[in-house]
UniProtKB/TrEMBL annotation:
GO terms for cellular component: plasma membrane. GO terms for molecular function: ATP binding; ATP hydrolysis activity. The lineage of its organism: Bacteria, Bacillati, Actinomycetota, Coriobacteriia, Coriobacteriales. It comes from Tractidigestivibacter scatoligenes. This is Heme ABC transporter ATP-binding protein. It comes from the Bacteria. Pfam families: ABC_tran. Residues 5-240, 257-502 form the ABC transporter domain.
Length: 503
């Protein structure tokens, strides 16, 4: 195979901090080369250099053996490099076709050449087995279909090298298989793929080679045929990785939070709730299993008081009925929330880590005078430093913005803030989505510790393995309805899997 890409001795420095240091990475034509590392290991920075968002402090980039200077994302596209981001960059109100051709400048005419472009898009779809309803609005598409639109965007622009950033994080098992089929058809045509993922089983299935980064430096590049999941995990964290197992709680009976016959927009097949009843007990983890998009989001919103149900009752920790929480009453009720989207709902990106850590306590006597009129910045800084150390938040300073952190460290900030108040109820929605094995294990340990301290935990996750690992009881949600309740100890996996499919 010929060499498609070579990044040679790439360093990227921010002030005195090296996000990448002397990294060498290459991709051959027709291969999937996985970039593996903990959150904050430098993967995103390296790819941002490759697509022209950052300029390297040192090092060279070669495409097809020729040195290139990638000064902007536009230049990256011209060089045949396309990236499918973890968070899609699509316009919901536009069709699949409109999203694919948006911004393309292959025509000299100021007028759209939609008929000609449609033919080109259809030819690419046929070539790689990408089935998309081009006339459907993106906002009405499934997550898996939206991802296909993103892939088509880069192929339409002539990409020879595709960067797929955590592409399976929000996909069902069936959608993952479809994605892998597409990846195989792309590599069969000589395309190169950079695959970024933390899911070891998927890495082992789809990759030809794996390069491990740790603290911004290259650790090793291995052929998948010559390594194991355990070896890769050990290389990622720099020591032997041992996955924890947890004892399951049985017999928890004290009600902490109750939903009684709750419905919320039941007419919406994948976005509502239909007559949902469940009880979360003190000192247990109730796991909600189900394929993403079957009512998980509205369930979390109802429990956290963000929306009012159309019918039914929501009974909170003090036994009173809840309609809609204000932020203040949410905090006073003793609830902690790890939201679905850490960037949109969990953090204020442009605020510092320290500021985000005290968001729920800005009016407390500990951190302010006059109920929030004057903040005690020294006290806030000391508090943040303690939580930083206790929660292994990897940053150069608690004064840097939350936006600048890796996904795993952002999640640790949210977790530290929510757990420091010793909540009566913790709602954890997709708490480890997109996180590496080390960060995932840390968060799992923290959630179980809260349970053991008497907290009631509602765990909502599309990762079936995560639900099985942590849950003391399991409920299955399908099209907004509870399909059954199952024990967390020795769960009937086949029965649960069928329930997740609505059977």
């Amino acid at each position: 195979m010929a060499e498609l890409l070579r990044m040679e001795n790439i360093s990227k420095r921010f002030g005195s901090f090296y996000a990448n240091k002397n990294v060498t990475f290459d991709v051959q034509e027709g291969e999937v080369h996985t970039l593996l590392g903990e959150n904050g290991a430098g993967k995103s920075t390296l790819m941002n250099v490759l697509i022209g968002l950052y300029q390297p402090t040192e090092g060279k980039i070669f495409m097809h053996g020729k040195e290139v200077s990638i000064s902007s994302p536009r230049v990256a596209v011209e060089q045949g490099i396309g990236m499918v981001h973890q968070h899609f960059m699509l316009i919901d109100d536009m069709t699949g076709l409109e999203n694919i051709i948006l911004g393309d400048k292959r025509h000299n005419s100021p007028l759209l050449q939609e008929g000609e472009d449609r033919k080109t898009v259809e030819d690419i779809m046929d070539r790689y087995g990408l089935e998309i309803d081009l006339d459907e609005k993106v906002g009405d598409m499934s997550i898996g279909m939206q991802q296909r639109v993103e892939i088509m965007k880069v192929l339409f622009r002539g990409a020879d090298l595709l960067i797929l950033d955590e592409p399976t994080a929000v996909l069902t098992d069936l959608e993952v298989e479809g994605l892998f089929d597409i990846m195989r058809s792309l590599t069969a045509e000589g395309k190169g793929i950079v695959f970024i993922s933390h899911k070891m089983r998927e890495v082992m299935r789809i990759s030809d080679r794996v390069t491990v980064l740790r603290r911004g430096e290259t650790v090793e590049t291995l052929r998948v045929a010559d390594t194991t999941e355990q070896e890769l995990a050990d290389l990622m964290i720099g020591q032997k990785f041992v996955e924890n197992t947890y004892e399951k709680v049985t017999g928890a009976t004290k009600d902490e939070f109750v939903l009684q016959n709750v419905s919320y927009h039941p007419e919406i097949k994948h976005g509502g709730l239909k007559d949902v009843s469940l009880t979360i007990h003190k000192g247990e983890i109730l796991g909600v299993a189900g394929i993403d998009g079957n009512g998980q989001t509205p369930l979390a919103e109802v429990v956290t008081g963000l929306v009012k149900p159309d019918s039914g009752k929501v009974i909170g920790p003090d036994g009173t009925e809840i309609a809609v929480f204000s932020p203040e009453t949410f905090i006073d009720a003793g609830l902690g929330n790890i939201p679905e989207d850490r960037n949109k709902m969990g953090l204020v990106g442009d605020m510092t880590i320290a500021e985000n850590l005290v968001l729920k306590q800005t009016e407390s006597d500990q951190f302010s005078l006059g109920h929030g009129k004057w903040l005690k910045m020294g006290e806030i800084h000391s508090y943040a430093e303690r939580l930083r150390e206790e929660n292994d938040i990897r940053c150069t300073s608690v004064d840097q913005t939350a936006r600048s952190l890796s996904g795993g460290n952002q999640q640790k900030v949210i977790l530290a803030r929510e757990l420091e108040g010793h909540p009566k109820l913790l709602v954890a929605v997709y708490p480890t989505r997109g996180l590496d094995i080390g960060a995932t294990e840390f968060i799992h340990n923290q959630i179980v510790a809260q349970r053991d301290a008497g907290c009631a935990v509602l765990l909502i996750s599309a990762d079936f393995d995560e639900v099985l690992k942590l849950s003391d009881r399991i409920v299955v949600l399908f099209e907004g309805q509870i399909m059954g309740t199952y024990p967390g100890a020795n769960p009937p996996i086949k029965e649960i899997s069928l329930a997740m499919a609505g059977k």
